[in-house]
Specification:
about 675 residues; five-stranded mixed sheet; alpha+beta
């Protein structure tokens, strides 16, 4: 029988990691966890080592190098004594060293997230430890421990799916975004094996349907303290803050919001004296509420003396910039100053009009909730609509052939048998029933939503029972018409849409005809409707990062679709900027070659260079054809385009011929 190798305790100072230890890479975060565990419980699993020849008492560690390094780190930090010992299984055969090291690392099975959840839960419940203490003990963050505890509280059916590997950790976290296990289980069963079962966004949307976020204008209007004081409950996950926590008692919030708005309306009405002031507990007035109303134009407000002085100062500054501009046009800094001054000048001239006192008495105003939660008057005012004539009550005698609870057919048709309020309430309940069924059938909802969006784009539709629209955003440059290949392709795509369904004046007929289209035809309408809503946002503007992300995700190669021309680009920038672009693709030599050109000639040369119409070195031509201005790139978050500089590692002559292909390939990929 083979004798088992002995385990002895050896001072860590006498141990060294052997070159044969198979683990070569490590994870700093995991090392911190391991160090915390060793500090709390010591080295539980022994190390494996070989005696060092001619050095008595010293050993080379072939398995357990990470543990040894953390022990030595704790000694260096003064948390362990300098002579701290660790258990070492001593091998006598060098041939076993690598094999045992490999077996120890390959044979290890990490705990699953579900096992971690139960382990942390058991420690806290049995040992009565605080999450912060557990986090410190295991070398993880308190947030990590709290996250595992939140997962441990999942509905049983979801936790079992996590433990069995049927759902991922991300899906489990999505369900843990609320703490109600009943609602979790309900949504889990509703989604089943459908497309949304693995879609974290869809899971969260289903879970919080009917909830309000803390950043919602209604929530900001009411305030967290008032909502909680009224009995409102808040459900927040570990990754939420005050802005995105869930306010789950929507009825309480809506009641409080309505009370705040009514109180604000009374104050405004007492101050301004509008003919009628209607409260809308939303951020905007529904289109259907104002479509038949006549707008009232307010009176412009004259500028104050201070504002007039500022306007004259702006005019003088703009004139000074124009007088001092060189023949090459404005510099980038001057263009920025001009844009800022012009924006300020326009803001002084384009202030919204206000109503005179005599206009207010005959006007209808709406009070809405601002995005910051502040009650505000809607910017447009309307003429008070004339009241509808009252229906005359039926005063005739009732025929003997008609029962007392019935009305004659002609008279019954002239007025509704129920009040308007009851009709509105029943309409709400009826629509609630419809919403539940539409929301439960994503394919049906997709066709319906697409129909609503595209039907509204084909003309004025007063019969659409939905606010869903795919409205094209306001143009940043009214009257601008693009002649790019993309613009031509967009028109072809638009003309190619199947409009055979849109002829009927009846909305139900149009809807059924739309649903009867083939899958490809309906999908084309959906793509067109969504695409037309995208805003044109300059680089750095709000939303530009998302647009860049979409361009990268779609792998759009801008250079294949758009080339800079004199009219589109080069005539609009300074000579210095154009020469800088020459240097980007051809180095200092190419810049110097065109440095003496006049601005007009330089623009035409640039159009030809970047259009591949000038005979230049092959590498320069390749880079030029792949180049687009920064404002046209979708790689704003990526690396800056490579600039060839003859003053770096390459001489002016070498900068074009040597290494050009690789650089051009890199720039092509970036473009």
């Amino acid at each position: 029988m083979t004798q088992k190798p002995p385990i002895i305790f050896v001072p860590a100072s006498k141990l060294t990691v052997a070159p044969t230890n198979v683990r070569k890479r490590t994870d700093p975060a995991a090392d911190e966890e391991l160090k915390a565990l060793i500090l709390a419980k010591g080295v539980i699993q022994n190390l494996v080592g070989l005696p060092v020849p001619r050095k008595k008492g010293e050993y080379l560690i072939t398995a357990g190098g990470r543990r040894l390094k953390q022990v030595q780190a704790l000694i260096a930090e003064g948390k362990f004594d300098p002579d701290h010992t660790v258990p070492v299984l001593v091998l006598t055969d060098k041939n076993d060293a690598v094999e045992i090291s490999l077996v120890e690392n390959v044979g290890r099975l990490n705990m699953t997230p579900a096992e971690e959840c139960r382990a942390f839960q058991a420690i806290i419940e049995i040992e009565k430890k605080a999450p912060a203490d557990v986090a410190k003990r295991f070398g993880v963050t308190e947030r990590f421990v709290l996250g595992r505890l939140r997962l441990a509280g999942l509905a049983d059916i979801i936790f079992e799916a996590l433990a069995d590997g049927e759902i991922t950790l991300d899906v489990a976290k999505a369900y843990a975004s609320i703490s109600d296990p009943v609602r979790q289980a309900t949504v889990f069963e509703e989604l089943g094996d459908g497309w949304g079962s693995t879609n974290c966004g869809e899971i969260r949307r289903r879970l919080i349907s009917g909830f309000y976020r803390g950043s919602d204008p209604k929530a900001l209007l009411v305030g967290r303290d008032a909502y909680v004081a009224a009995g409102g409950r808040i459900d927040s996950d570990l990754f939420s803050d005050a802005a995105n926590e869930n306010w789950i008692d929507s009825e309480i919030l809506e009641r409080l919001a309505d009370e705040r708005m009514q109180a604000a309306a009374e104050e405004i009405q007492a101050r301004d004296g509008f003919g009628e002031l209607r409260v809308v507990c939303q951020t905007r007035v529904p289109y259907m509420d104002v479509m038949a109303l006549d707008e009232i134009e307010g009176e412009s407000v004259p500028l104050t003396q201070e504002e007039e002085d500022r306007q004259r100062a702006i005019e003088q500054e703009l004139e000074a910039i124009a007088e001092n501009a060189d023949e090459d046009g404005y510099s980038d800094e001057e263009q920025q100053v001009i844009q800022t001054l012009e924006a300020e000048y326009d803001a002084l001239n384009e202030r919204p009009p206000v109503l005179a006192d005599h206009q207010k008495a005959g006007s209808l105003a709406y009070l809405v909730i601002g995005q910051d939660g502040t009650p505000r008057l809607h910017e447009q005012f309307y003429a008070i609509p004339a009241p509808e004539p009252e229906e005359e009550e039926f005063e005739g005698e009732v025929s003997e052939d008609v029962e007392q609870d019935e009305e004659p057919a002609e008279e019954a048709s002239s007025r509704s048998p129920i009040s308007q309020r009851l009709a509105d309430e029943m309409a709400i309940m009826k629509t609630e029933l419809l919403r539940v069924h539409v929301a439960s059938d994503p394919h049906f909802a997709l066709d319906l939503g697409t129909f609503f969006m595209v039907d509204a784009t084909l003309g004025f539709r007063h019969d659409l029972p939905s606010d869903l629209r795919a409205t094209a955003p306001y143009s940043r440059m009214p009257g601008f018409e693009s002649d790019t290949p993309a613009a031509e392709q967009w028109e072809e795509l638009k003309e190619g849409l199947d409009r055979s369904w849109a002829d009927s004046p009846d909305i139900t007929d149009r809807y059924e005809a739309f649903c009867a289209l083939g899958d490809d035809a309906r999908a084309s309408w959906l793509g067109w409707a969504i695409a037309r809503t995208l805003h044109a946002v300059p680089a750095g503007g709000s939303g530009s990062a998302m647009l860049d992300h979409l361009g990268r995700k779609l792998n759009i190669n801008v250079a294949d679709w758009w080339r800079p021309t004199a009219r589109r680009y080069f005539d609009r920038v300074s000579k210095t900027t154009i020469l800088g672009h020459f240097e980007e693709v051809g180095g200092v030599e190419l810049r110097n070659r065109y440095g003496a050109s006049k601005k007009h000639d330089l623009s035409l040369s640039a159009e030809k260079l970047f259009g591949g119409q000038i005979i230049v070195e092959a590498a320069v031509k390749e880079r030029a054809l792949a180049w687009v201005p920064e404002a046209m790139r979708f790689d704003q978050d990526g690396e800056a385009p490579h600039t060839i500089d003859g003053g770096d590692d390459l001489s002016d002559s070498d900068s074009i011929d040597q290494g050009g292909t690789d650089e051009a390939d890199g720039l092509s990929e970036a473009a």
